[in-house]
Fold this protein.
Amino acid sequence: MSVVIVVGAQWGDEGKGKVVDLFTERAQVVVRYGGGANAGHTLVIDGKKLVTHLVPSGVCHPGTSCVLGDGMVIDPHTLLEEIAECQERGLLMRNELLIGLGAHVILPYHKLLDGLREDYSAKQGRAIGTTRRGIGPAYEAKAGRRGVRMRDLYKPERLRALVAANIDELSPVFAHLGGTVPTGDDVARWVADALTAGERLRPHTGDAGRHVANAIAKGQHVLFEGAQGCLLDLDHGTYPYVTSSSTIAAGACQSAGIGPTQIDAVVGITKAYATRVGEGPFPTELFGAEGDKLRIAGGEFGATTGRPRRCGWLDLPALRMGVRLSGMQSLALTKLDVLAGMPEVRVCVAYKLDGKELDEPPTDPEDIARAEPVYTSLPGWAKLPAHAHDVTDLPTAARAYVETIERMAGVPFCLVSVGPDRSETIRLTDPFA
Ligand code: GDP
Ligand code: IMO
Ligand code: MG
């Protein structure tokens, strides 16, 4: 296996960062393929924490090429801050970073618009609960063929004309949403800032598609890193409560400009329970003290916005859908340790809707919200041993939980994570083997 895609199997925050860091040990190239700074991945290595938003989570392996694919939407200022933070830690010192010139740029007006839309929709009770990082507006501009791309940062006249035309068109929208209409001075400042940031990023930009294709042609190990999760996919997730990009495995090919025939393996990441940030149906959600207990045990607060994550029991119908959408051949199970100390652990094995039992979520979000989870209950376990490196190190009940999930999800586990640190991992199979 030389080309592997890693994707979140749920609603994001599954622990992709930790797993991508581990798998990058065996990769020469790691490619982030979608979304932008809406993502937040926490890596813990020897007790030290690093949070990535745009830079691939393989960044802690010096010498590994870190690519930001053309399918991304990049906030240049956030990226510069992140590069600086990495460099302070001695990372990205060997020119590892490559930013696709075709990637779209997030400018201040995308973020303003994202926030204004959220506030306006909230008053009507229909907010999405976005991260307000400008993701939706930037992808809208892309689909509307008026977006700003990384390559435009090196053509000042083109950039000025593009931004001015966008603001001209968006001004009535700003006014309608109750925002301040941007002025000519705002446009001039935004363009000047973008040009300055562009210059600083210039040494890291290039033809990401060719770079990845060449690496694959040479037989190098290439790891594609998904952001968000399959159920947040624009086409196949719980629309409209989704992000604006393709989060499923197919998005990797789209973003990098490579054919699906090049992909050797797809690995999904799932937590041992479920979380969701923002609005949208979540049938297994736990409320009150039960939800709080899981949130606190799992440290379930957003790495990007700090928002408390909604928490609930593992949802197998949703997981099966993720497995299907991305063609996952194996799964990494994370945060098993968080369930320790629960007298019983519940798992949703099916949904009941209008008298019928469903093994995957219905397609309409209103139906998902109406669906009743059918649970099975498994015995809990007191705690996990300090160092578990093999499933045989796990207490019998934890092992039974892992085996039950594996059987019911229908794909084998390649890894079980029992703590946030790189070292707190039970490795079962190597995705590059
Ligand atoms: P991502 O967006 O999928 O990369 O996930 P996040 O980093 O946003 O959220 C996962 C959180 O769980 C991070 O704080 C990780 O450090 C942490 N984490 C990952 N795996 C484990 C695990 O097995 N156990 C525990 N307790 N925490 C974990
Ligand atoms: P990682 O990569 C969890 C959610 C937001 C919101 C919806 C749309 O860390 O797993 P957006 O800002 O993208 O327009 O918001 O998608 N969302 C995430 N939830 N993890 C993420 O990324 C997310 N990225 C977006 O909370 O519900
Ligand atoms: Mg996250």
User: Anything to note?
Assistant: The mean pLDDT is 97. The first strand starts at residue 3 and ends at 8. Residues 8, 11-13, 38-41, 128-131, 133, 135-136, 227-229, 232, 243-244, 277-278 surround 6-O-phosphoryl inosine monophosphate (ligand 2) (CB under 6 Å).
